[in-house]
Amino acid sequence: MVVVAATLVAASTLHLNGLVHGRSSHFNANHAGIAEAIIAAVLALGAVALGRWQARSVAWAAVAFAIVGFGVGLSFTTRGGDAPDIAYHLATLPVLIAMLVTLTRRPGRRPNESSTEVPSSDAQRDREASTRCE
Question: Which of 14, 39, 50, 62 shows the smallest number of beta carbons within 10 Å?
Answer without folding.
Answer: 14
